[in-house]
Batch of 3 targets.
Target 1
Amino acid sequence: LAKTTQPISMDSYEGQEVNITCSHNNIATNDYITWYQQFPSQGPRFIIQGYKTKVTNEVASLFIPADRKSSTLSLPRVSLSDTAVYYCLVGDIDSGYSTLTFGKGTMLLVSP
Amino acid sequence: NAGVMQNPRHLVRRRGQEARLRCSPMKGHSHVYWYRQLPEEGLKFMVYLQKENIIDESGMPKERFSAEFPKEGPSILRIQQVVRGDSAAYFCASSPRAGQPTLPYNEQFFGPGTRLTVL
């Protein structure tokens, strides 16, 4: 499994755009990139997933450069409720199943 | 459309007692995963089960821990003779089937967790 590296923590203010970058230098051809969000005292929740270029949904955008050695989760106009831990995961498309491998994630603190 | 349910939400046990954690997957999901989260750590995979079968228990401690997912009823994670180091949050996740060939790949739906405290 490709190892991922993320900042331990980030601070932001309400209304700002937040970009969290994850490094995965050893990503394999069949690996896809997934981000989960975890609020305090809750289980993780799927946010977004991508393989290359850009993916956007109602919650976030995911930017993946051509070499795929990193990815950036972009949260537009964050609010206090976006305070959470964000996990970047890399998994194999072709495996029959794939248990999720979580690192320590990035603790995002949004202040008023 | 209920999500993944876990009970109890909080469980307190004394050293040497048994802990039984229950997980009901989302309706229509036949794959269950258990993860453990120690304080200030990320989630660590423990075991993956389908109905009546353990598929992968590579993350489960060899002793005192067991898991089952019977044909009827919830999945159970059992910890015998608990020790203080077992104190953690235990999360269950479910998916409709493994390796579905459509996006998103391997999306897992997590329950709220059971927080086990061993005194």
Target 2
Amino acid sequence: NAGVTQTPKFRILKIGQSMTLQCTQDMNHNYMYWYRQDPGMGLKLIYYSVGAGITDKGEVPNGYNVSRSTTEDFPLRLELAAPSQTSVYFCASSYSDSSYEQYFGPGTRLTVT
Amino acid sequence: GQNIDQPTEMTATEGAIVQINCTYQTSGFNGLFWYQQHAGEAPTFLSYNVLDGLEEKGRFSSFLSRSKGYSYLLLKELQMKDSASYLCAVMDSNYQLIWGAGTKLIIKP
């Protein structure tokens, strides 16, 4: 099992550009999440999904979009990148939403200049 | 509002014991998680508490008091590889994790 994989590992964007962060898991988990982690701050939930075709906003969804067409994939789209979106982005998955641990991908380090 | 507090940084000596505290105020409670995060890497799961008391797992133990909104992670027989950030997270009434900023643990020989 590869677990949770993310691409790319690093990316530099110019202000106003768009990009998609890819996330795939091979554990057949229903729940998937996108977080951002800024220095000195806790992880913040951007979007989450409880199954294919179902997505919902987290704490900081503005400037982002997601889709979940399959159980395995949960891409995060950034439209019109802004410097405030400079962060490390983690995708995670879990079997369920309560007592089950979340498994994290290796992260994408994004810089917007 | 929802809030998770933990110390920013702690220093301990190899072979010693260290306790990392976490206090929380959240809308609802469906369990508390501890994760370890080495620099530049993803968080990895350490422990889960939903009932009051101590959960022991090898060198690591985690304690929860729901009435006090308090948890701690106890690390024994510290090793250099334990140098990392330790993240406390509480699952709220919407089953979303609210994360603390993390405690950076520095182990000295």
Target 3
Amino acid sequence: AQTVTQSQPEMSVQEAETVTLSCTYDTSESDYYLFWYKQPPSRQMILVIRQEAYKQQNATENRFSVNFQKAAKSFSLKISDSQLGDAAMYFCAYRTNNYGQNFVFGPGTRLSVLP
Amino acid sequence: DAGVIQSPRHEVTEMGQEVTLRCKPISGHDYLFWYRQTMMRGLELLIYFNNNVPIDDSGMPEDRFSAKMPNASFSTLKIQPSEPRDSAVYFCASSSSGQGLGETQYFGPGTRLLVL
């Protein structure tokens, strides 16, 4: 069974600085998708960024980018120019492309942004 | 599009009562998911549907939980009888197999359930 690990329960970053959140996963599949979701205090789950495993190029969405290392099964999220609104729980998620559409979520990392 | 809609947003009930949570997926999406989030267990998939048919309900905790999807635009998650340990935030999410975008799941705002 697939598993997703986020080894940093909590992180903090100074406003305008850069922070990297770690995610590793375990799978025997070769075709899959990876996601980062953000959950602010409102509890709404918001998609931040997604990556297809077959693509070597790292995904980028404005200030958010990933470092996808397929061989190492690592999928870290980099937030540049951190803003107060980035403070939230961040969940890494995995979805296989071979069957169904169920996701496996990591336990989350709580990010604090310090003014 | 209005996104995934859930109701109610908050529910407080007493132990033993029946609770019904409702979800309207994004129009055109053919997959619907029910999740439960607690501090202890994180985000857990309870059940998901494809074209209104339940595909995997292995995450449903016990017989007190049931889910239905009578049509493409509506699903319910029912707990009967409810217990204090069912207190959690319940999320509904939907996705489209024809999306071509990695079938991203889009989440509703959640229902915060408190069972006293």
